[in-house]
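Below is a concrete protein record.
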Amino acid sequence: MLRVSTLRKITSFTVFFFVFSASFTQAQEYSTPINEVNKTDVYWGDLHVHSNYSPDSFAFGNTRLNPENAIKFARGELVTANNGMSVQLRRPLDFILVADHAEFIGVLPMLINRDPVILETELGQQWSDLLEKSGGDIGVIIDQWLARLSNPDYEQELSEEFRTTIWKKAAGFAESQNDPGVFTAFVGYEWTSMVQGNNLHRVVLFRDDAETATQLPPYSSLDSLDPEQLWAAMQRYETKTGGKVMSIPHNGNVSNGLMFALEDLNGNPIDSDYAERRARWEPIYEVTQVKGDGEAHPFLSPDDEFADFETWDEDNIARTVAKENSMLKHEYARSALKLGLQLDNELGVNPYQFGMIGSTDSHTTLSTADDNNFWGKFLDSEPNPKRLTNDMADILWQNWRLAASGYAGVWARENTRAALYDSLARKEVYATTGPRIALRVFGGWEFVESDINSPQLADIGYTKGVPMGGHLSSAPEGDSPKFLIQAFKDPDGANLDRAQVVKAWLNKNGKPEEHIYEVALSDGRSVIAKTGLAPPITSTVDVEQASYSNSVGEVSFSVFWQDPDFDPLQHALYYVRVIEIPTPRWTAYDAKYFSLDPPKNIPMITQERVYSSPIWYDPKGGTD
């Protein structure tokens, strides 16, 4: 039998234990992940794929693969391509957006299948008659489609009810394949404005489910060719539904100077209202894809030895107006980012403060950005012995010029529409031309050099600074921003050649300047003082065998870097470019597979890369 005094002691201890335990639990959980409010992982995806619901995709041979096929392929399933070959991704993606053209979305498959829903419309009957008179030549319909894209006088020829019906069907594919936490299928489309043949295309991406996103029909260039009217339509959508939506421009390189102009489409100088709306609706830019890489241009950045990468700059998207050098600074991302600094200095708002992603713009329904598994843009650029020859051209350029690019890397808390969308909106994203290089970048004032070696680097980065896409201000007196940069090679790809910080700023006269800092070089190389450049890495590429060796380069870079040329009074931005060692381009893989001797002007070697979203410094602004 227990004595009363002993019982009192046990009771007292028990009460103390429970009180202590409850108090400790409320303060902090023992299990670390519960306390990690900033934990993120990188997810890979493509936000710009076309199926046979896009008129041009269908007309150029993609008659069998619909949006559902695109999503299943991205998830890793085996698909039979339009050329009859089997195709599959070695590594599935984490997310996808099938962004079919809003202009007559889904109409051509219905027309060819004699669907009574489309044949009962005036447009459907008109196009059916054209097809019959032409002997089934689908080209007559694509001519009709293209004419409407660049003509502001055309009006919508399909009722809102009809367009909403088809839109619901298209969005339904994404809804049926979306699997929160496992795979994300976004709802969206492409707005396809071609002002006088100049590319102003935008992908429209919804955060919402199909039921919400389809409450209004997709806004197309038949409604307006003006991006400002697209933004107004997006505002109406958010007001009506309570949802969220953004637009993602792409291919400024074929806009002939319109994508990042200093005037609106009416020729009026950009004002603060325009700048605020553009920054609000277009937080990211698709900087690399099949129609060329848009990060930099050698004319604009003559001191950048890596600026001439998959460059397309001959004319506009309709091939109607030749390119002039004066257009280039309004077409490429780095130049646009610098123009944004100038406009911010003048207007107090930066319209070109965007993060960077890549996507494919594939019109084959197949999202492929790997050189050793590249399926082109249209049917004629799917693998075949003729796609390397100069006489085989698609609607835009010769097929050998197509770039096997790109994907979007997104740092998010989980693989869901909401989490991925929110990361895109805050610009914690980066672009890759194909390889899945894991890249983290943080900027701040309080980092110390030992932080780069911490196993809790991400915790330190989020706690003491901002990630890519973030903003810094209020520089401590006598200090300059510090950066933590960590890059790991694609585990199924090539080693890394170098890591660079690209800095742009406004000088004391308010003019933009740029400089590239080599912050990490592989194989013990260093910058040559006389030239300011690093020796090129040894190439291990065997073109004939379409092979290379990882006997050169590094597996990873971990860099602490502090700006040595900082002026706290100057607007500035910083982004990171990581470049792989030389590897075979897709043209080399084709030459080997088809036993070809391609023309000597075709490039056979490439150096793939990733671009982080910038971190901005504003002398007068707030800190994210």
